[in-house]
Amino acid sequence: MFKENQVKLAIAPIGWTNDDMPELGGEVTFEQCISEMALAGFTGSEVGNKYPSDTNVLKKALSLRGLEIASAWFSSFLTSKPYEETAEAFKEHRDFLYEMGAKVIVVSEQGNSIQGQMETPLFDKKPVFTEDEWTLLLEGLHHLGVLAAEKGMKIVYHHHMGTGVQTTDEIARLMNGTDPEKVSLLYDTGHLVFSGEDYLAVLNTFMDRIHHVHLKDVRAEITQKVCDEKLSFLQAVKGGVFTVPGDGLIDFRPVFKALSEARYKGWFVVEAEQDPAISNPFEYAVKARHYIRETSGL
Q1: What single DSSP character describes residue 15?
Q2: Distant-in-sequence, close-in-space partners of 251: CB < 8 Å, separation ≥ 6
Q3: How far apart are CA 125 and CA 164, in angstroms?
């Protein structure tokens, strides 16, 4: 399905240790995490809060296990803080990823975000940007895209539950309002399905803008519980709303088929934040790797 060297497979450390809720996987070491990633058959990783900030130390630890850095999350605050604050933090983040050999920078706007609020109902209190906020976001992303291009890199925008860019319409507004040369899209199956969007329609509509992919599955019964009980995003995660591909309700076969036919090049990143005390991260990494091999040939 995919040509050789067309796609590389990574897995995010958030299944081992959760950055937003450090109590989930607090006992798991950085070394255990990356060793199990490699043992499960992955060749890349995104960056977690336990990863060394010294690029030489990180490079050595990863190279011993045959791993690369695919990207790392960056929180922008373009709608809620002066642009200069986001720009300065972004340049530091960009330079770190550049040194690690990454080609894309994951950006998600966190102005007014509720994703990190433990008690705020996810669907009832979702932020909606004003016209002025949309202007700040679109203009700010263009500026960040220029900064990324200085290092030959791209920004890939991460639509995300509990933020102002979550729904199909919001993704469309962001894509239609930005220059494809400056702003690309991170396609995340789990966040789309959790939000109630048509994940294949979004994929096919914005295929030419997609330069990074997160493979995340969703448990239908937990999604319904989040709606019925007005739970927060973090409560949903602790309750097990996300899981690895092949363990939830999403059929990834048409995703792989469409991306293959479009000659997508880049990373697929398995991402499934769960409580590692309940869902053993190594076991689920192996499960994801087997499913991806069976359904995509990778």
Answers
A1: G
A2: none
A3: 11
- Please report the beta strands in the chain, taking only residues with DSSP state E, as ranges in sequence order: 7-11, 44-46, 68-71, 73-76, 104-109, 154-158, 183-188, 210-215, 217-218, 242-243, 266-270
Q: Which of 189, 174, 100, 114 is nearest to 144 (CA)?
A: 174
d(CA 53, CA 59): 10
Domain boundaries, the chain: 7-296
> What is the Cα gyration radius of the chain?
18
- To 5 degrees, how large is the angle CA 291–CA 297–CA 298? 85
Nearest Cα neighbor of 18 from 292, 266, 240, 250 is 240
What number of other Cβ atoms are within 10 A of residue 155's Cβ?
Answer: 30
CATH class for the region spanning 7-296? alpha beta
* Per-residue pLDDT of the chain in tens (298 residues, 90 and over written 9): 898 899 999 999 999 999 889 889 999 999 999 999 999 999 999 999 999 999 999 999 999 999 999 999 999 999 999 999 999 999 999 999 999 999 999 999 999 999 999 999 999 999 999 999 999 999 999 999 999 999 999 999 999 999 999 999 999 999 999 999 999 999 999 999 999 999 999 999 999 999 999 999 999 999 999 999 999 999 999 999 999 999 999 999 999 999 999 999 999 999 999 999 999 999 999 999 999 999 999 9
Q: Residue 107 pairs with which residues in a beta bridge?
A: 74, 157
> Which amino acid appears at position 23 of this protein?
E
Those residues whose C-beta lies under 8 Å from the C-beta of residue 179, and which sit 6 or more positions away, are 142, 145
Contact in structure between 79 and 129 (CB atoms under 8 Å): yes
